[in-house]
Amino acid sequence: MTDISVPTLGESVTEATVGQWLKSAGDTVKRDDVLVELETDKVSVEVSAPEDGVLSEIVAKEGDTVEIGALLGRVNAGGSAGKAAPAKAEAPAPAKDSKPAAKEEAAPAASGGKMTDVVVPAMGESVAEGTLSTFLKKVGDSVKKDETIAEIETDKVALEVPSPADGVIAELVASEGDGVTPGSVIARISAGGAGASAPSASPASPPPPAAKAAAEGAPVSPSVRRISTEAGVDPSNIPGSGRDGRATKADALDYVNNAASKASSSTAVTESRAPRDIGPREERVRMTRLRQTIARRLKEAQDSAAMLTTFNDVDMGAIMDLRKKHQDSFVAKHGIKLGFMSFFVKACVNALKEVPAVNAEIDGTDIIYKNYYDIGVAVGTDKGLVVPVVRDSDDLSLAGIEKYIADLGKRARDGDLTIGDMQGGTFTISNGGIYGSLMSTPILNPPQSGVLGMHRIENRPVAVNGQVVIRPMMYLALSYDHRIVDGKEAVTFLVRVKEALEDPERMLLEV
């Protein structure tokens, strides 16, 4: 008998809520099968089976609050699987609990075929839920193992859900547009081509419960409790879209943000009013989860940071001459064109080393200084703005940066970016110039304290050595969090970027 305990959940995290058991007592499990999901105020954690055997006992129930090291259940290794099997074959046995009964009715409906659940995969650190955007298969369709069955859209990336086995789609448990969490079942596959019997499985699974208020006895998770406490709202008033009507972290954030919007007279008119009727030449389209998250995060940045922008201009002539002189040989050697962005990344890294506050972040009453330089590069896609990160930019050459950015840009446009590609940036560069922008004030990407805005290059008359000449000039804009970055530091940073770009040879030689 092996105990299943709550693992270490990260620094300063002392408890979690049991979110969902993916296996029932008596189920046969394999080593590393996900048994249960735990939700903390920061992340969702999957707890796996330590060995092959049978889940003999579930100690902590869904909704229970558990501490680190607490007992969740037990796995019985060895020959106990045979004892558990008859319990499943007896129809009356599960009558004590209506939930397991619903799951076990699916097996007879498959006419003897083994029923396999299709579950939502892990979506990455801090991503607790997504939206089921598309089913690529319907009930009765044959599928192969690893064939994509559905697509899930999170607030950061789109995920593909592969088939766990060969067989036939017997049941679609979730519907397009539903909110789903890691480990939740969205469909079931019957082995052996038993798709014709799929309709009989449908009545056995009740439709997902409609969103209801957490006040109806649903437990409150640590993340919801923390968010509601910080916002000064009653967690029982938060409508829940999770399992059994429980409020999720996303529900709490939406509720708090909507409450804040209604409290503001400037936004109450547009956000708190009921949907209006549309005219014959209008079209109403639901915002994607990515667009909703972009809107929320940008508004949060404005509300939380003391954001200020300082400007300068830079003569791009030296870099343009350098690119023109060496472009052919650069392409021949590295297989990629020498663009402007690599120079800007290098210039920003040099300036960040001199002004570390711009590369830092605020954590409560502390400042975290980062001695690494992961530069986010804003990329526009059909679905919205994403900010993939160029890791360890200070260790890359110009060619290395150009290849890194080209790869990120391609994957962003193809929808192939992962959560890891967009996490952990320390500073962001946004190039509005590719769209023709002359000047703008970029918005911070929290928790970062600085973002540099690039703009279009324009020939303008400037004074050089007492003479008016026409030079290719670009406006630069640095938006920064004035809580951590002083005006002197912000101006110094921007001046150092300007100096590096106007004399790139010195920057590259580090003199």
Automatic annotation (TrEMBL):
User: GO biological process: what's one of them?
Assistant: L-lysine catabolic process to acetyl-CoA via saccharopine
Species lineage: Bacteria, Pseudomonadati, Pseudomonadota, Alphaproteobacteria, Hyphomonadales
Under the heading SUPFAM superfamilies, the entry gives: CoA-dependent acyltransferases, Peripheral subunit-binding domain of 2-oxo acid dehydrogenase complex, Single hybrid motif
Per the entry, what this protein does is: E2 component of the 2-oxoglutarate dehydrogenase (OGDH) complex which catalyzes the second step in the conversion of 2-oxoglutarate to succinyl-CoA and CO(2).
Cite the InterPro entries for this sequence.
2-oxoA_DH_lipoyl-BS, 2-oxoacid_dehydrogenase, 2-oxoacid_DH_actylTfrase, Biotin_lipoyl, CAT-like_dom_sf, E3-bd_dom_sf, PSBD, Single_hybrid_motif
Q: Which cofactor does it need?
A: (R)-lipoate
Please give the PROSITE patterns that the UniProt record associates with this protein.
BIOTINYL_LIPOYL (PS50968), LIPOYL (PS00189), PSBD (PS51826)
Q: Name one Pfam family in it.
A: E3_binding
- E.C. number, please? 2.3.1.61
Descriptive protein name: Dihydrolipoyllysine-residue succinyltransferase component of 2-oxoglutarate dehydrogenase complex
Catalytic activity reads: N(6)-[(R)-dihydrolipoyl]-L-lysyl-[protein] + succinyl-CoA = N(6)-[(R)-S(8)-succinyldihydrolipoyl]-L-lysyl-[protein] + CoA
GO CC annotations, alphabetized: cytosol; oxoglutarate dehydrogenase complex
Task: Determine if Aminoacyl-tRNA synthetase is one of this entry's keywords.
Answer: no
Query: What binding partners and quaternary form does the record give?
Result: Forms a 24-polypeptide structural core with octahedral symmetry. Part of the 2-oxoglutarate dehydrogenase (OGDH) complex composed of E1 (2-oxoglutarate dehydrogenase), E2 (dihydrolipoamide succinyltransferase) and E3 (dihydrolipoamide dehydrogenase); the complex contains multiple copies of the three enzymatic components (E1, E2 and E3).
**Compositional bias annotation for Low complexity:** 82-95, 211-222
Q: Which keywords belong to this entry?
A: Acyltransferase, Lipoyl, Transferase, Tricarboxylic acid cycle
